[in-house]
Amino acid sequence: MAHLCSVYPFHADASFGERGVLMGANVTAGMGGFFFDPFEFYAQGHLTNPNMIVMGSVGFGKSATVKALVRRLKAVYGTGRYLAIVDPKGEYSSLAHDLGLTVVRLYPGGTDRVNPMDAGGGDQDGSVIARQNLAAQLVVGVLGRELSPLEDAVLGWAIERRCQSPVPFTLRDLCAEILDPPDELVRLSRHSPLELARATAPVTFALDKLCSRTLRGMFDGPTTVSIDWDNGPGVVLDLSTVYGNAEALPLVMVAATHWLTGALRGRPERRSVQVIDEAWAAVRHGASYFQSSLKLSRTYGVATVLVCHRPSDLTAQADDGTASAKIAAGLLSDIQTRVLLRQPPEQVALAAEMFDLTERERDWLGQLVQGRGIWRVGARSAVVHTVLTANERRLFDTDQAMVDQGDGPA
Ligand SMILES: Nc1ncnc2c1ncn2[C@@H]1O[C@H](COP(=O)(O)OP(=O)(O)O)[C@@H](O)[C@H]1O
Ligand SMILES: [Mg+2]
Known about the structure:
Elements (H helix, E strand, L loop, with lengths): L3 H4 L13 E6 L5 E5 L1 H6 L8 E4 L6 H16 L3 E7 L5 H7 L2 E4 L18 H20 L5 H16 L6 H9 L3 H7 L3 H22 L19 E5 L9 H18 L5 E6 L3 H15 L2 H4 L1 E7 L12 H13 L3 E4 L4 H10 L4 H7 L6 E6 L2 E7 L3 H7 L2 H7 L5
Parallel strand pairs: 3-8, 3-9, 4-6, 4-7, 5-6, 7-8
Antiparallel strand pairs: 1-2, 1-11, 9-10, 10-11
Helix pairs in contact: 5-6, 5-9, 5-10, 5-11, 6-9, 7-9, 10-11, 11-13, 14-15
């Protein structure tokens, strides 16, 4: 691969310029430096959104690439790049220590709690809608089916009503509200109180399960952590104690992401990079949730980086080919920077179709060595080798963590 540029000199891409941080060598442009920053590229018109996806098989350098990017962004832009990281494997601690990020460890029975029903920042309407979407997504996750129109409406009304008061509320309060609905809600539903109670029982069961089991001790009470959103360098939400729980993990990740996004919405003047590592675990179950949160990026200056394993992560939840193609296309239309690391042979055809790869890129995809990826930045493309310093190799090493923790659920 290192010699590709001499083998295919006609393919050598023009340089991407030198805005952003040096990530490593541009293999397809004579091994020159490759610089990147989603916001600089966005400002220059190379991208219509600053979101990224990093995709590749386990161990080929997805997390290391993201860690190198955020660490260098911090070095170059300082407080001009706020970092918000969802860390399902608990592998960002050394980086957090190095950069002075606050680490919030969420686990049942722990002292750190975050309340996904916090208002967050941004405009009030957006905040209400975000909370309605999240609650619906969590309930859908527990029930394993879509909500009926009445269930959806009652959940939405209950949240809207609570949001009208300045008093903060939690998922537990929401459950209580639906269990014992105020007259106004009963009237709106055009059902008798008994009918309404019957019809919304699944929602209260689901909320109760979320509070007493799935999210217990992490997302079911008032927020206890205090984070300097204005002047601090950033935050890592460590979810590693839930990583082995395939049922809870997607819901915990969606709740964590929602809470971070809410806080970031309040600072549109600042640029934030929100990393969702191992995002495949949540995206498979909540593609529509992520789709709506990706759309916020332009308004609120948040670049979201989703880390996935394979193209099928974006389609696995759909039953038929058409629906899955739609979901993937919907998500990808809001992610203009795609970094493709090595894929197993059986994923190459799907990747080629999903990312519209050239024949040459398709051949490379199955052979890329660790740390090397096809970077699709808007309309341009390059093969880039992320070069780590000795210090970064030490900070980013996950091999030991893998030995200690196993590789989590498939
Ligand atoms: N570009 C690179 N140069 C040197 N080592 C790397 C590079 N990318 C990854 N590694 C090492 O490989 C191991 C696995 O990388 P990691 O990024 O954790 O994989 P993934 O997130 O894709 O599963 C880590 O120990 C990391 O330090
Ligand atoms: Mg990783």
